[in-house]
Amino acid sequence: MDAIKTIELTKKYKDVTAVDGLNLTVRQGELLSLLGVNGAGKTTTIKMLTGLTRPTTGDAFLNGKSILTGSAAVKAMIAVSPQETAVAPNLTVRENLELMAGVHGLPKPEAKDKAAELSDRFGLGTIANKRAGKLSGGWQRRLSIAMALISDPQILFLDEPTLGLDVLARSDLWDMIRALKGNMTVILTTHYMEEAEALSDRVAIMKSGRLLLTGTPAEIKAQAGTDKFDEAFVRIVKEGQP
Amino acid sequence: MKGLAFSKRNDLEVLRDPLNLFFGVGFPIVLLLLLTAIQANIPVAMFEIEHLAPGIVVFGLSFMTLFSATLIAKDRGSSFLQRLYTTPLTAGDFILGYLLPILPICIAQSAICYGAAVLLGLEVTVHIVTSILFTLPVALLFVSLGLLCGSIFTDKQVGGICGALLTNLTAWLSGIWFDLGLVGGAFQKIANLLPFVHAVEMERAVLRGDYAGVFPHIWWVVGYAAAVTAIAVFAFLRQMKRQ
């Protein structure tokens, strides 16, 4: 079974079509990067897949569950790490993790165990009792991803996970994201081409709400006739007919 | 269970903000001390402790709107709510999670204010306990106003509207500091159409053990609380849909 399958997924806001008849398939355990310039429809696509907004027409199935008719089942299997670092600032790192475990219905002892496990895995142990609002941007991102993982999601959405981070913090987060590959399906949106190339199994490029192309980074470079991924992206987007 | 985790978080967020503690507890107690000191030097019936304390309790509760609205507006602004909308929490969990945890804080705040009033000479009677219980509809009114404002405004707007406007409205139109009859006219009429003066009069009646005197004030308070809660729920669900 595919992890994600969208069928003619469309979202219209009055006169604007943000996503136009998207047909996209993501395999289980795959890391797919959704690329596109601003206004391409990436965020709207993610919002529809995560139940934040309802499609105008079409449907999507996450591990076989429809986003239209199986919203509760979909929410139970997904997790999102939003573009902005969405942490509770006056709660400690540990409390933030336990909060996310709690809202996913994990009993208290299990929530504590999971929080401890993720603290170890993400190197958050030494700052477990520090308030999240006092952490640097890099640590907050790290915590944000750990919070998304606490419910053991089958599908993880990472929206611009390394935006605004310095080189070292970005490299650390890349390692963490690489470690997730194979264990769960990951949908990543990013504006950093080197990030997409380094992390993705496959890449989907969108423009003006439509899907231009999907393929591995190597296939995309080959199709564009260049060995530079960012150049390939620019060529495909410029030449692509929406 | 899921809703409880969210409620607990909201409790902690409010209680751990030092500004909230200052305005929620410190400021009303400072006012109580200051006005009692004035009363000791220049006796004014308005500032007698059994008359003043219920007013300060209601005024203190008006800050809960600011705390609640700021929490919600910040959650919306920081994408924290958007993250939680993708979890199995239901709309009911969100609404109750924002409303209910603040109510015990309101009760605690009222108890602290009455405790301070006792130290300043308020007679200890069972009516203090009933007065604290009667703050519940007032607390619901202010917390629901917080849900409403937090669902509509940004955290900066909330600071101005709930922090400055609402607390001033409560202060001026509640008859805490001066008899509204002294101003009279349209001012008094407007004040009587709003719930603040009724909340204070209800509390004063309960504190002196005059339970008949609770009426009709309680109807104004409960009516406003019910209406504001309904509008707040509608506004929250609307912004939730928009997200």
Written overview of the protein:
The complex is a heterodimer of chains A (242) and B (243). Chain A has helices at residues 42-49, 71-77, 93-103, 108-121, 137-149, 167-180, 193-199, 217-224, 229-239, and strands spanning 4-13, 16-26, 31-35, 57-62, 65-66, 78-81, 155-159, 185-189, 202-207, 210-215. With 242 residues, chain A is of the alpha/beta class. In chain A, helix 3 (93-103) packs across helix 4 (108-121), helix 3 (93-103) packs parallel to helix 5 (137-149) and helix 8 (217-224) packs across helix 9 (229-239). The radius of gyration of chain A is 18 Å and the shape is globular. Chain B has twelve helices and no strands. Chain B has helices at 2-15, 18-41, 49-77, 80-85, 91-99, 102-119, 126-152, 155-172, 180-183, 185-193, 195-207, 217-242. The relative contact order of chain B is 0.14. The chains are: A alpha/beta (242), B mainly alpha (243). Chain A binds chain B through residues 50-53, 72, 75-76, 78-91, 95, 98-105, 107, 111, 131, 147, 151, 157, and chain B through 1-2, 4-6, 8-9, 12-13, 16-17, 78-80, 82-89, 243.
Characteristic key phrases:
heterodimer; A: 242 residues; alpha/beta; Rossmann fold; six-stranded mixed beta sheet; four-stranded antiparallel beta sheet; 9 helices; 10 strands; 38% helix; B: 243 residues; mainly alpha; 12 helices; 81% helix; 0% strand
Largest sheet of chain A: 6 strands, mixed
Helix and strand run of chain A: EEEHEEHEHHHEHEHEEHH
Summing up helix and strand content along with how strands pair, one would put the structural category of chain A as alpha/beta
Principal-axis shape of chain B = globular
Detail the poorly predicted runs of chain B.
none
In total, the number of domains of chain A comes to 1
Q: Please trace the helix and strand order of chain B, writing H or E for each element.
A: HHHHHHHHHHHH
As residue ranges, the low-confidence spans of chain A are none
- Portion of residues in beta strands of chain B equals under 5%
Largest interface: A-B, 36 and 23 residues
